[in-house]
Amino acid sequence: MKRWIFSDPHLGHKNIISFCGRPENHEEIMRENLSLSVGREDVLYILGDVCFGNEQLLKSFLSSIHGRIYLIRGNHDKWTDTKYLLCGFDGVFDSVGVGDILLTHEPVFLSGGLYRYNIHGHLHNLGYGSRKTKGEEFDCGTYDCFKDGKHILYSPELENYKPVQISSLVARAGK
Known about the structure:
Helix 3 (55-63) packs across helix 4. Strands 4-3-2-1-9 form a 5-stranded mixed sheet. Strands 5-6-7-8 form a 4-stranded mixed sheet, covered by helices on one side. The chain contains 5 helices and 9 strands, in the order βααβαβαββββββα. Helices cover 23% and strands 18% of the residues.
């Protein structure tokens, strides 16, 4: 069994194409890459901001992916847990701990020593230097305060719209 990470598909979100420089067919590319990578015995964690479209769009997208699929809610995931489960997710969470790794949508401060790493999405290809938005809990102006080796950004734009195994992301962070 492999554990995969993907984030921020933004299905049905037309502005994401110009916002992050995605190709017009990014949804098809993501669907194909996920379908080819994630095996039947595998687990896929999608780190939020999954769908701006309707339920049918999400059902169709998820139906092409093998394995168990878990949603870690993002700032745009406003549907009920039941609605996401009916669309094909096997579970819906705010965060998930996998050993010493905390999976979230946005980067979070790590404290107490329970988690060594935080794998997150949210920043896309804008990275840690991007400006934080109003109302966020921390006050460092940008996300630069998370450039500490403990926080690992997964961005579909930076990974050619392919999922990445958790172990690969952690190995890269350790270099």
